[in-house]
Amino acid sequence: MRTEIAKLHKKLATTFVYVTHDQTEAMTLGTRIVVMKDGIVQQVATPKVIYENPVNLFVAGFIGSPQMNSINGMVKEEAGKVKFIFGEDKIVLNEKQGELLKSKGYIGKEVIIGIRPENIIDKEEFIINNIEQSLMAHVEVVENMGSETYLYLSKGESSIRAKINGISSSVVGDDIKIAFKIEKIHMFDKETELTIF
């Protein structure tokens, strides 16, 4: 049905409003999307902007399949580096992210990071080059889809979903090393759930 609606929209070459709860329909059919929660507009933007720059945690979790991972933790500065701390793990943030957090007074405060599943990497070369953004995680479920693999991981209290290109060699029960594409993480204020970056 999406294809037919898209063809009709192109043929009529006019503005129309399409209301849906299906985020896939919204992303594929919309030139601009209005994301609402409890009758209140959260964000109005193009699909690309909503996906890459959500204004809050709700929008970030609503758009994307599988959903964006969200992990609770704290921002700390150690040895001149700004880090996201959760459980026993520490992820070093890049300089731009660190400076922004310092300027906004987030050092020592609780935050939530968001990372999309496709921005979690299990390839050894990437991990070696991004060792300060890596951590060990336990494999709970592996879904090999051919062109991609979904890994459902656990790390302490957190559940993490990763979308890996191709077939993964990971097996249920393995403890594997993963790394985050640090420039792709989002950070949200723990209290307001608004985007920090």
From TrEMBL:
This protein's record includes keyword Cell wall biogenesis/degradation: no
InterPro entries hit by this protein: ABC_transpr_MalK/UgpC-like, Mo/tungstate-bd_C_term_dom, NA-bd_OB-fold, OB_MalK-like, P-loop_NTPase
Enzyme class: hydrolase
Keywords: ATP-binding, Hydrolase, Nucleotide-binding
Signal peptide extent: none
Gene3D superfamilies: 2.40.50.100, Nucleic acid-binding proteins, P-loop containing nucleotide triphosphate hydrolases
SUPFAM superfamilies referenced in this protein's UniProt entry, alphabetically: MOP-like (SSF50331), P-loop containing nucleoside triphosphate hydrolases (SSF52540)
GO MF term (any one): ATP binding
All residue ranges annotated as the MalK-like OB fold domain in the record: 64-120
Keyword field contains Membrane: no
EC number: 3.6.3.-
Cellular component GO terms, alphabetical: ATP-binding cassette (ABC) transporter complex, substrate-binding subunit-containing
The protein, known as: Trehalose import ATP-binding protein SugC
UniProt organism field: Clostridium vincentii
